[in-house]
Amino acid sequence: MLSFTLNGLRFKNPLILASGILDESGETMLKVIEHGAGGVVTKSIGRKPREGYENPVIYELPYGLLNAIGLANPGIENYGEEIKVAKKGGVPVIGSVFGSTVEGFVYLAKKMEEYGADAVELNLSCPHAKGYGMEVGTDIALVEEIVEGVKKEISIPVWAKITPNTENLVKIAKAVEGADALVLINTVKAMAIDIEAGMPVLSNKFGGLSGPCIKPIGVRAVYEVYREVEKPIIGVGGITYGRDAIEYLMAGATALQVGTAVYLRGIEVFSLIAKEMEEWMEKHGYAHFTELIGLAQVR
Amino acid sequence: MLSFTLNGLRFKNPLILASGILDESGETMLKVIEHGAGGVVTKSIGRKPREGYENPVIYELPYGLLNAIGLANPGIENYGEEIKVAKKGGVPVIGSVFGSTVEGFVYLAKKMEEYGADAVELNLSCPHAKGYGMEVGTDIALVEEIVEGVKKEISIPVWAKITPNTENLVKIAKAVEGADALVLINTVKAMAIDIEAGMPVLSNKFGGLSGPCIKPIGVRAVYEVYREVEKPIIGVGGITYGRDAIEYLMAGATALQVGTAVYLRGIEVFSLIAKEMEEWMEKHGYAHFTELIGLAQVR
Amino acid sequence: MYRVVEIEEVVTETPTIKTFFFRDNSEPQPGQFYMIWLPGVDEFPMSISYIGEIKGFTVKRVGAGTARMHQLQKGDKLWIRGPYGRGFRISQKKALFVGGGSGMATLAPLIDMMPGDVVIAARTRDELLFRKRFAGRKVYLATDDGSEGFKGFAHELVEKLLHQEDYEIIYTCGPELMMRKIIDIAISKGIDVQASLERLMKCGIGICDSCSINGYRVCVDGPVFFKDELVKMKDLGKYKRDKAGRRVPL
Amino acid sequence: MYRVVEIEEVVTETPTIKTFFFRDNSEPQPGQFYMIWLPGVDEFPMSISYIGEIKGFTVKRVGAGTARMHQLQKGDKLWIRGPYGRGFRISQKKALFVGGGSGMATLAPLIDMMPGDVVIAARTRDELLFRKRFAGRKVYLATDDGSEGFKGFAHELVEKLLHQEDYEIIYTCGPELMMRKIIDIAISKGIDVQASLERLMKCGIGICDSCSINGYRVCVDGPVFFKDELVKMKDLGKYKRDKAGRRVPL
Ligand SMILES: Cc1cc2nc3c(=O)[nH]c(=O)nc-3n(C[C@H](O)[C@H](O)[C@H](O)COP(=O)(O)OP(=O)(O)OC[C@H]3O[C@@H](n4cnc5c(N)ncnc54)[C@H](O)[C@@H]3O)c2cc1C
Ligand SMILES: Cc1cc2nc3c(=O)[nH]c(=O)nc-3n(C[C@H](O)[C@H](O)[C@H](O)COP(=O)(O)OP(=O)(O)OC[C@H]3O[C@@H](n4cnc5c(N)ncnc54)[C@H](O)[C@@H]3O)c2cc1C
Ligand SMILES: Cc1cc2nc3c(=O)[nH]c(=O)nc-3n(C[C@H](O)[C@H](O)[C@H](O)COP(=O)(O)O)c2cc1C
Ligand SMILES: Cc1cc2nc3c(=O)[nH]c(=O)nc-3n(C[C@H](O)[C@H](O)[C@H](O)COP(=O)(O)O)c2cc1C
Ligand code: FES
Ligand code: FES
User: Fold this and answer.
1) CB of A207 shorter than 6 A to ligand 3
2) Measuring CA to CA, how many Å separate B282 from each of A197, C135, C248?
3) What is the pTM of this model?
4) Which of A169, B84, C27, C167 has a CA 20 to 30 Å removed from the CA of A95?
């Protein structure tokens, strides 16, 4: 009911671990896979090791999380072993990378391919890193070049993860349509101030909002882009229960990623959501989740 | 502790009713004033009467509201009486207007002035009306012209309400710096699908997200803009308790607007928040709320 | 968020009115209402007409939305949110209930809960709603065309009854002009009154102002209002607001 | 969201360790920890060292954050979130508690709650933490330099004690190399063991992967781990992850 093929990759279910959550080390990714994830995306990896921002890098809100980890990562040269370990899980491992130039992205993507990653996800959307992520990802000409540059140089599928922090969502989506799939959304640019301290909580001040509170933003993004691009969309943002997963599918997502829900419901969230989806589909007479894709599109 | 003057207008407290909430009729605005609002902004009024979208126009979420009222309004020619009635409340009444051209905004603003409005708020940011709101409000040259055009033609203060649905927030803020104050944020573009119905809930499909879930986005917007523009900022988005009001002040807001909290805590929310602010300030040794403005800015 | 409830039974009450029975865990008070969404069609407010374990909406066909609802059958679904608003306040006073047309739907669960005499009014005999529902008490009927019971408007019958019995409170729901007259009677005779009002509703939760009458929001301050509030409503029976928010004659 | 607590008392335990007492409504288990934020300075994890109505953090000065904390005084504030993680599991077995350095802070509230003998280890006599806290039971001291009690490492003393008494479980917290040795001893002797681990923590809530060791997240799966888990941790005592997530030798 939940297994499917996307870009030639076989997934046992559409619930993929989102980038940045429990995916720095290969062994942790294995744990996530054991708990039912249909695939895993690694933390976004860059050229050099990065320590990220000082603590606090995370803030718990009643309806989600605010984070500014700051793209902490061991650097691509140190990452081969982690991919190798994660691959033992037997599900697709997607290497997420971030850079600021076409060459940078190409270098990282090639390394991921060399390490055995099943696909590459281009992070064009992190809202809180100077010179990376959404700063790159809202430059429509640049993102197009990056996607095309990477596509030319590697043979594994390329996913483009784009930002919701823009009025040009559809334009950006079209610019990256050369990718094999689009991933949306990344976190929403936000901040929190602790009034007793009289200062921003995150050491970086600004961060990205994730979790249930951004679900309506993510569903809107998927719905808007689905009608404008031909490529499969991977929906992410606030998916916590089976009903959220179904909502994203109905909006037009072909696969899903789950991040903050790992915090809300524990690492077993993947099998929980899968079970909830199956129960709902059985009750409503659907034989396979792909029947739900785009169902709520009103033309 | 809470009274102040902004653009020459005297407010008994900084808690102003946000546009679109209980402000279509003069008598309802009077009720809101009786319950402690320091000022009221009218519903956004256009040139002609508009019925708005069909029901459902509102959707209750666990952490906010999604709405697509569709700029329903009686039209400017029918609005003089409402302003007259609202003015009996003895607090500033700000006329919100929406249009799609400089001339349109100017016409509406002049009418508001003629009706006795104490200031005009330009809605450059509604996320769900074709040809209005944020479609206008992300055209940087156009918003600048609108603000300048209106400024030239009326003598009451002009407030510019801008959208968070953009990567160009600061640029837009600078473009409208000719206004006497900036109001941010309007709702965040979003949608919800009812999975049992298999369709979007709002008849317009897309709507605007408001309430506690957008507070981190609004605080971020105020914080970002405060350091870049000289004009006072009016913070709005998720202000529900005294502590939220203080968070916005610390981010850089000079005054505040309250919308969705009227739904969450009732019409008495204005006096409740005012009381909570006073209690907090007393406990922390602040004599006047203006001492808090921009306190959390880290340079 | 909507809850989906399944229609368990449909009862045709009159040529234009049907009752839809369903189960739902909410615990409404008489006079409260729900917003019913028919996906792809419309969303509209509806009073609860049965408040027990099996609940009911009693719906008059007036426009596109209610017409679609009338086509629904056992097993079909309703999307609902609520209960919303302030219901009737039960009193120890000697009560007269006055329902006009589908207004009886709103009053009925209150009548089930407290003693008092009942006036059921309608244009014509076929439209008399719930005429068999209230056993063991005085039920007066009135029709505009005299096809059954008292011939004339409900408020005329009420004036007559007030000469016969010392009612201390009137509970009413029905066409606004009828309610206006009854409220005026109550004011002039110095008796108490509660009325459930109807206005165009968009949000149902007290923020859009579409249902307001003289500063009172029907959806949260009402729909049931008390005498001290009703006397202040200058527009009652005279003006309403249209979808654009214009104040227009009733 | 952080809670702000006020420091009610500061006790200097050793030249490098202070205890900060405060009140807070949370109900931690021994072995659980909090994230402490010193605005403008740093945020770091800290075990609860007193779990009653008056709670305590017992903090060793190691870097910038803990140094700043050592400057705080009565009346100053702490921003905290928690309690987090899985604490110790109380057992009926005959227990030996082995704390090294500030590790005693983590063990102390457990020792307060259950019987058993205690080993307090430190580099030197001045650093022996909580030597007077546990009345009415056997407390063995060990110092690396022999300035008090047993001269040598904690695990050496433990080996000796295991010859004297039939301990069935060891609870331990302290430097990782010490814990590694003690776990190895427990494995080889077939006795049970629980150890509270320390790793770099960014989120404290199980999502960032910075605290993971061989797939176990110290912040939510631990910080206290049981024997069947500890035996699987190949990196324990050998590798850790740095701030960039690189696997580096301890
Ligand atoms: C609190 C409340 C409780 C109600 N309870 C009941 C009930 O128990 N049974 C019942 O049959 N009806 C009840 N109604 C009325 C019901 O909501 C309307 O009949 C319904 O909205 C009409 O929808 P429609 O799509 O069929 O008609 P539309 O096509 O929307 O309209 C048909 C006509 O009715 C008018 N109209 C629609 N809604 C309203 C309204 N709210 N107030 C005044 N005029 C309106 C329109 O202007 C138009 O003239 C209640 C209304 C309210 C506000
Ligand atoms: C679950 C848990 C409970 C803890 N309980 C206590 C306690 O009760 N009492 C106590 O004194 N300390 C405790 N610690 C350790 C404490 O968190 C660190 O000492 C503190 O973070 C150091 O912060 P700093 O800013 O002073 O030092 P930094 O300037 O951040 O670092 C100083 C040195 O310590 C290292 N370091 C920092 N944090 C850690 C860490 N988490 N693991 C390993 N090395 C680290 C750094 O790499 C550096 O070498 C605990 C740690 C964890 C994970
Ligand atoms: C702590 C944290 C770290 C993240 N790091 C990354 C990252 O490195 N790269 C990336 O593309 N997205 C990153 N994200 C964004 C998530 O992958 C995801 O797009 C977002 O959190 C929305 O999904 P969610 O609501 O399910 O968490 C991070 C999110 C969180 C909460
Ligand atoms: C039902 C509703 C209607 C609104 N209508 C308008 C409007 O007409 N003009 C406008 O500028 N903003 C409108 N808004 C936006 C609010 O003024 C405000 O910017 C937003 O809701 C965020 O504040 P809040 O979280 O306090 O509600 C509306 C919001 C809601 C919820
Ligand atoms: S229906 Fe919106 S305020 Fe009553
Ligand atoms: S500290 Fe983030 S996962 Fe443990």
Assistant:
1) no
2) 16, 62, 49
3) 0.95
4) A169
